Amino acid sequence: MAESLAEFRGRHRYNLMDENIRAMYAEVPVVAQWDDHETHNNWYPGQVLTDDRYTERRVDVLATRAKRAWWEYQPISNRASVPRPTAAGTPGRIYRKLSYGRHLDVFCLDMRTYKDPDTTGLEPVQTHILGPEQTDWLIREVAASRATWKVIASDLPLGLVVPDGPVNQESLSNGDPGTPRGKELEIAAVLSSFKRARVRNTVWLTADVHYCAAHHYDPARAAFADFEPFWEFVAGPIAAGTFGPNTLDGTFGPRADFVKAADYPNQSPRHGNQFFGHVEIDEDGRFRASLRNARGEVLYSRTLDPAPR
């Protein structure tokens, strides 16, 4: 655990002591997103911890320190469209777009900073996981993209139930396969806006849960049908206990095309159930996704042909 800015910085420095991490950073470009564990498990703005080990229990204070340390140790664009921290140390914006030629734009989300509290998710009114400003940005920028593929790098899965305690939910799915409620309404607005703008070739790449899976979302299977079909590829972890699989929520019509999870909860990494994803895009625009284990062995692959614009 970390509380002070120095302690949060120390956690980042600790990772850099690992020679494998240093080798990866030397050879592989990194697009960093922040996770709940950069601050505290399953945190949300306004939360007050009940953990007696903490002397500072206001998550807003902890998150400000954690975010500043994250900015100092993780690679992130210095363009004007992504404000850097100020001289006073106020952290900048994490969500952003990265362009990689004619075939790929990556939209990195921040599903932590603007999130409403974890609840059952069954509220009849909209609550936030992206927040209004980021939602508008995502809809606008994806609709304006001329790249063949619009990859949305998502902190949390769209259709997986991720519990936070006995009744509350960490992600946007609420376990009710009916029409959208709560945080689901914000994502429903995003998906329907993509459809209205005739956006083609979106793929969601998702983290957070500790196993790997390939999900296909189809309005023909969904309670909410105002969207175009798309794929979501889930991969993780690479250095933590393995869990899963989580339950799928039917609101957006997901189907698990592949799942590889732990043999038992919190299985040690030494047993090999550590996963990562790999994507390559051919010159002709074919999107080739694979899910792999820690040895690099391909466990699953899927080739997606681009739809015409």
Report on this model:
There is one protein chain. With 309 residues, the chain is α/β, with parallel strands linked by helices. The protein has 2 domains: 1-79, no CATH class; 95-304, Metallo-dependent phosphatases (Purple Acid Phosphatase, chain A, domain 2), CATH 3.60.21.10. 20% of the residues lie in helices and 20% in strands. It is built from 5 helices and 12 strands. The strands form 3 sheets. The chain has a 7-stranded mixed beta sheet, with helices on one face. Helix 1 (5-15) packs across helix 3 (59-73). It is globular and about 55 Å long. The N and C termini lie far apart (48 Å). The model has no long low-confidence stretch (mean pLDDT 93).
